[in-house]
Amino acid sequence: MDLRDPVHNFIHLSDEERKLLDTPPLQRLRGIRQLAMANLVYPGALHTRFDHTLGVMHVAGLMARQLRLDGERNSKDDIRLLRLAALLHDVGHGPFSHVSEAALDQYAGEAAIPVATKKEKIHEMVTAQIILENAQIRKIIGEETSKNIVQLLRDGYGEPVLKSIISGPLDADKQDYLLRDSQFCGVRYGVFDIHQLHRSLVLVGQDDDRQLMVKEDGVHALEQYAMAKYYMTTNVYRHRVRLITDQMIVRAITLGVETDQIAELRKLFTYRANGDFVDNYLQWDDARFMVKFCLEQQQTACGRMLEALRSRRLHKCIFRAKIAEFSDDARENVKGLSELKARDMRKLVESELAKVVRGREKFSAGRGGFCDDSFIVHSYTIKSVRESSRDDEAGMMVAGLGNPKPFEEESILFRSINEKMDEAFCELYVPVEWESATERKRERESLRGEILICINELCKRK
Predict the structure, then answer these.
(1) Of 23, 96, 294, 354, which has the highest C-beta tally within 10 A?
(2) Cα(362)–Cα(304) distance, rounded to whole angstroms?
(3) Is 437 exposed, middle or buried (0-12, 13-18, 19+ CB in 10 A)?
(4) pLDDT tens-digit profile of 404-439?
């Protein structure tokens, strides 16, 4: 069976892959957008986890064929496992994809997470549970294959190259989402020559310990890929409106659980390592979430926040400062304000900033219909292009006549870049409407010094 894909043209599915794709856990991904509410700034960004999943499977197959894994002993089983793992790798995502992970992290009790899996992200644990426990998936691929896929997604299974294709600095996931997000957002930042990049791939090592690397003459193709990743991060994933919509969703969930005491919302995001949690989780996608917690909860703080998103009455950024602008003894705390461990400090900062901002007529209580809990402080970092070229686990290696070398050392372009030249920011988002660009500029400038001092004093190390 062949499917027409807007990014990769035709994608071939085996009978087993087609049956797997037709199961409810995979079909649910049609209702989960890849980039959450990025369509509020990029109208075409309506593609889903379902589209992406197909693309990752296809790219993983292309990489396997390029590396001639289909010509090795017993490799047909490896390639089958690889493609199935790619098809299932995102099955554990919740509504709005990565955005809801913050809520999952926040409400999962320590006792709910098995010690052996604490290093995993919660949506990855959910993915493993679905693959291992869903009766329809197990019936199609078998119990042993289910276990092997989970092992491959976690720590690797078989040759190291299989894990690298699924999860690594040059994996099929990143290759697909860069091209797909770029196309549907209507930008060219994420475009790179995927076929030339694949022609540059090589396996280095002996027998079952071969590692995925790039040939020396593939450095320029790799540079293009790394720059695509950097530019998509700075121009799309860190776009100011995208940042605001993501934070509004997270805050809506927090308000719904803690202020409105919506039991169904708490149940959705309170992870438990049992079948009841997964069975309920699999019933939710973006549309059901918005109907239940927005349209049916219009009088709640959660509902008002989601309605503002639905009608594109977005928070505005009234303050933005580089972390370097704060005092030495406050910078680390300001930089970490959005981390889960800094939740109490963040709430204190937001509460005090609400007092500062509410003193202005433009932001007085009652205007905009939001409580002070809707004031959102957010800190984030944009890594240097050199640092972002590496994955969490390792960097990309270049194979030459001698020992393999890190890509950033082999690339003249990347060697000239200071790795420490990243930029970190702290921003404040509030519900406000501007009459004009002149008013926006005037109000932001008049508040900036006071907000900066307030955050700085509250975040100083005691």
Answers:
(1) 96
(2) 20
(3) exposed
(4) 988 888 888 877 666 666 789 999 999 998 889 999
Greatest CA separation found in the chain?
74
CB contact set of 373 (below 8 Å; sequence gap of 6+): 251, 254, 255, 259, 301, 350
Residue pointed to by tokens 């776009």? 239
Residue 297 tokens, joined = 């909860």
Give the span between the Cα atoms of 253 and 289, in whole angstroms. 10
Looking at 11-25, 142-156, 316-330, 346-360, which range is the least confident one?
346-360
Structural contact between residues 5 and 52, judged by C-beta atoms closer than 8 angstroms: no
Q: Is 429 helix (H, G, I), strand (E, B) or coil?
A: strand
Measure the CA–CA gap between 373 and 379, rounded to whole angstroms: 17
Q: In angstroms, rounded to a whole number, what is the distance separating the alpha carbons of residues 33 and 75?
A: 34
* 306/294 Cα distance (integer angstroms): 5
Q: What is the pLDDT of residue 393?
A: 47
DSSP string, 344-411: HHHHHHHHHHHHHHHTSGGG-TTGGG--GGG-EEEEEEE--HHHHTS-SS---EEE-SSS-EEHHHH-
Count the helices and strands in the chain (H runs, E runs): 23, 9
DSSP code string of 197-215: HHHTEEEESSGGG-EEEEE
DSSP, collapsed to helix, strand or coil, labels residue 94 as coil
Q: How far apart are CA 243 and CA 171, in angstroms?
A: 25
Q: Please tell me the pTM assigned to this model.
A: 0.92
d(CA 163, CA 140): 23
| 372: amino acid identity, one letter | D
Q: Which range has the worst mean pLDDT, 56-60, 129-133, 158-162, 253-257?
A: 158-162
- Read off the DSSP letter of residue 321: E
Map tokens 């289910």 to a residue: 146
Chain position carrying tokens 């679905």: 130
Other beta carbons less than 10 A from residue 453's beta carbon: 12
Annotation: CATH topology of 2-239: Hypothetical protein af1432 (1.10.3210)
200-255 tens-digit pLDDT? 999 998 877 889 999 999 999 999 999 999 899 999 999 999 999 999 999 999 99
Q: 295-321 b/e with 16+ CB inside 10 Å = b? A: eebeebbbbbbbbbbeeeebbbbbbbb
pLDDT at 203: 93
